């Protein structure tokens, strides 16, 4: 009905109601149909095809859905006192809690918060449900993480009988009703601005940035809004007197490239809202990793090795489950002064075996065990591929072949009786650190 009747008479400036999708015939403050104040209006509302969808405080939202008694309480998802905040609900954020904040600081800011350890399996399952609903709208879905993705709905109007803006508003309603969490939508003509828009009205947001307003909108924003401008680069720009995107808009491309190299070209283009990147469906994972933050800083190899083994087994299990393998092993350490060390080594062949990941990680770790006390340890693999070429038989190292066969037997026992049914000597009887909770995952 909307496609046949509403479009010819409904000016995009008047828009539609996000709660009942009723077209609006004038610039009223509330919906003419249901009385809701949540109206979508924009001069380019029905012309823009590219969206960024982001779940609101995803981990916390899933926990609140499953535990209704937490609905009006501040909730923090994260590890123990030495861990960091993975996600905080909006009530906790009002009290000053932020993602990646050390847990002790989060609890200082919001001592009444309910702290819940992450349940990654549950979050992945819910994230896939949301992803499936996105893919029902368009085949052009590019995931960025477990809870966000770009969508290109260009050319889908005839399929849905509605313009992309209405399709996305309806999608938001259905996610809330069918899955029990909320999402925010950013709609624009390019990926850069769609992602910015999705952050403008959180939670339950729906924001639009059109092509005509892009340059003046960006002019008043800080340079940190540009993808790739982190703290260090922002500091470099500030030393040159550049704080706002409007200042970049006044500069020539050549001048920016002379000062900042390739990044100067990106500053020139994005400061003007120029982004020709396409939405690439089924974005592949770049790495698989697991890490944990200790309750107390650790320095001795005897304390670190059990953790490394347990994390290697977690990474291996994920690789095997996904039928993928990695060729580069990456070790991550964070010292007590929060400085991060990463070390990596490329293998001759891709692997998905816990033993190979652990043995390489052990060699990398031995070089870093110089008395430094560490608060975090992580291990992972990158350079991912399918498992067809993974772990070919080693004709030189007979023990490696035997360890691979033993690992296969252990996997079968664990599949039947649970992950703790069989342990290696590295982790058996080593306590909590040998069985670290999952905090972060690439």
TrEMBL record:
Function: Poorly processive, error-prone DNA polymerase involved in untargeted mutagenesis. Copies undamaged DNA at stalled replication forks, which arise in vivo from mismatched or misaligned primer ends. These misaligned primers can be extended by PolIV. Exhibits no 3'-5' exonuclease (proofreading) activity. May be involved in translesional synthesis, in conjunction with the beta clamp from PolIII.
Enzyme's top EC category: transferase
Record-listed E.C. numbers: 2.7.7.7
Encoding gene (name): dinB
Catalytic activity of the protein: DNA(n) + a 2'-deoxyribonucleoside 5'-triphosphate = DNA(n+1) + diphosphate
GO cellular component: cytosol
Subunit structure, as described in the record: Monomer.
Name of the protein in its database record: DNA polymerase IV
Signal sequence annotation: none
Organism encoding this protein: Kumtagia ephedrae
Site location (Substrate discrimination): 59
């Amino acid at each position: 009905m909307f496609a046949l009747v509403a479009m010819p008479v409904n000016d995009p400036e008047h828009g539609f109601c996000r709660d009942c999708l009723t077209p609006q015939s004038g610039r009223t403050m509330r919906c003419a149909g249901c009385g809701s104040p949540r109206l979508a209006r924009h001069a380019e509302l029905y012309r823009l095809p590219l969206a960024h969808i982001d779940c609101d405080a995803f981990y916390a939202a899933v926990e609140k859905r499953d535990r209704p008694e937490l609905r009006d309480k501040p909730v923090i998802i994260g590890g123990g006192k030495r861990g960091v905040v993975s996600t905080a609900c909006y009530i906790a954020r009002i009290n000053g809690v932020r993602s990646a904040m050390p847990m002790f600081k989060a609890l200082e800011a919001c001592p009444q918060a309910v702290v819940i350890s992450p349940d990654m399996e549950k979050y992945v399952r819910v994230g896939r449900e949301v992803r499936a609903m996105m893919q029902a709208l368009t085949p052009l879905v590019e995931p960025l993480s477990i809870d966000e993705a770009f969508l290109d709905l260009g050319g889908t109007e005839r399929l849905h009988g509605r313009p992309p803006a209405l399709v996305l508003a309806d999608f938001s309603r259905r996610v809330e009703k069918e899955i029990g969490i909320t999402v925010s939508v950013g709609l624009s003509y390019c990926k850069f601005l769609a992602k910015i828009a999705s952050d403008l009205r959180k939670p339950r947001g729906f924001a639009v940035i059109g092509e005509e307003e892009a340059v003046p909108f960006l002019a008043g924003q800080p340079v940190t809004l540009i993808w790739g401008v982190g703290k260090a680069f922002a500091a470099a720009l500030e030393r040159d007197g550049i704080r706002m995107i409007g200042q970049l808009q006044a500069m020539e491309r050549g001048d920016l490239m002379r000062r900042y190299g390739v990044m100067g070209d990106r500053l020139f283009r994005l400061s003007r809202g120029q982004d020709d990147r396409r939405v690439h469906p089924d974005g592949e994972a770049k790495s698989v990793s697991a890490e944990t933050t200790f309750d107390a800083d650790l320095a001795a190899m005897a304390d670190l090795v059990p953790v490394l083994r347990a994390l290697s087994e977690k990474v291996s299990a994920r690789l095997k489950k996904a039928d993928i393998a990695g060729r580069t092993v990456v070790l991550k350490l964070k010292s007590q002064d929060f400085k991060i060390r990463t070390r990596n080594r490329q293998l001759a062949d891709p692997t998905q075996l816990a033993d190979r990941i652990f043995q390489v990680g052990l060699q990398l770790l031995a070089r870093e065990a110089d008395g430094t006390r560490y608060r975090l340890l992580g291990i992972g693999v990158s350079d991912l591929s399918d498992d067809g070429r993974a772990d070919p038989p080693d004709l030189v190292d007979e023990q490696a072949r035997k360890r691979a066969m033993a690992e296969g037997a252990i996997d079968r026992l664990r599949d039947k009786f649970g992950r703790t049914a069989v342990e290696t000597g590295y982790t058996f009887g080593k306590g909590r650190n040998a069985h670290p909770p999952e905090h972060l995952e690439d």
